[in-house]
C-alpha cells in the first residue's frame, strides 16, 4: 500500500523515492508496479487539473428520478455531455446521480433548463457544492 500511496500523491514520483518511502529496492518497486498494472489494479496514470485555475469552479451533484423505459436513453445523453464528470446508477430516492462542473452559475442554470428537459425525467434533486472539507483526488474540487 505504500507504493500505491506514493503514486496517488504524485504519479510522476521516481522509483527511487518510492523505494526510500517503502523500505525496498527500486527493482522491487518497479516489479510491484508492473504487476499492479498487469493485474489491473492500476488502470492508468493521469493528471489532476485545478478546475479553479481553468475558471470552472461551480460544482453540483444532480440526482434524477427517471422512467425505467427511458433510463438508457437518458444515461447516454448525460454520459456524452462534456460537463458531466461522473455518472452513477443508484438506489434510493434517485435513479441516477451525476457530478457536473461549470464556469458560472449561469452555465449551470442553462444546463438545468435545457439539458434536463428530456422525456422520461420524473424529478430532479440539485445540490450545489459550497466548499470542500476534503477535495476529490481526481478533480481537485
Q: What do you see in this structure?
A:
The protein is α+β, with helices and mostly antiparallel strands. The protein folds into two domains: 37 residues, Orthogonal Bundle (Arc Repressor Mutant, subunit A); 71 residues, Alpha-Beta Plaits (2-Layer Sandwich). The protein has a four-stranded antiparallel beta sheet. β2 and β3 form a beta hairpin. The protein starts with a helix and ends in a 13-residue tail after the last strand.
Give a brief outline of the structure.
This protein is an alpha+beta fold and 141 residues long.
What order do the helices and strands come in, and which of them pair?
Elements: H1 2-9, H2 15-22, H3 26-38, E1 58-66, H4 71-79, E2 84-89, E3 96-102, H5 105-115, E4 121-128
Antiparallel strand pairs: 1-3, 1-4, 2-3
Helix pairs in contact: 1-2, 2-3
Features:
alpha+beta; 141 residues; Alpha-Beta Plaits; four-stranded antiparallel β-sheet; Arc Repressor Mutant, subunit A; 2 domains
Major sheet attributes: 4 strands, antiparallel
> What is the chain-wise order of helices and strands?
HHHEHEEHE
Radius of gyration from CA coordinates: 20 Å
Distinct helical segment count: 5
Share of residues in helices: 25-40%
Amino acid at each position: 500500500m505504500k507504493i500505491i500511496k506514493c503514486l496517488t500523491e504524485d504519479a510522476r514520483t521516481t522509483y527511487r523515492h518510492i523505494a526510500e518511502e517503502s523500505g525496498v529496492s527500486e527493482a522491487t518497486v518497479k516489479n510491484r508496479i508492473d504487476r499492479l498494472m498487469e493485474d489491473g489494479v492500476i488502470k492508468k496514470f493521469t493528471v489532476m487539473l485545478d478546475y479553479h485555475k481553468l475558471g470552472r469552479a461551480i460544482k453540483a451533484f444532480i440526482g434524477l428520478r427517471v422512467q425505467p423505459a427511458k433510463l438508457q436513453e437518458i444515461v447516454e445523453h448525460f454520459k456524452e455531455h462534456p460537463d458531466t464528470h461522473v455518472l452513477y446508477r443508484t438506489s434510493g430516492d434517485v435513479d441516477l446521480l451525476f457530478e457536473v462542473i461549470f464556469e458560472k452559475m449561469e452555465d449551470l442554470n442553462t444546463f438545468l433548463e435545457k439539458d434536463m428537459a428530456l422525456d422520461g425525467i420524473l424529478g430532479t434533486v440539485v445540490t450545489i457544492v459550497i466548499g470542500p472539507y476534503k477535495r476529490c483526488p481526481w478533480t481537485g474540487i
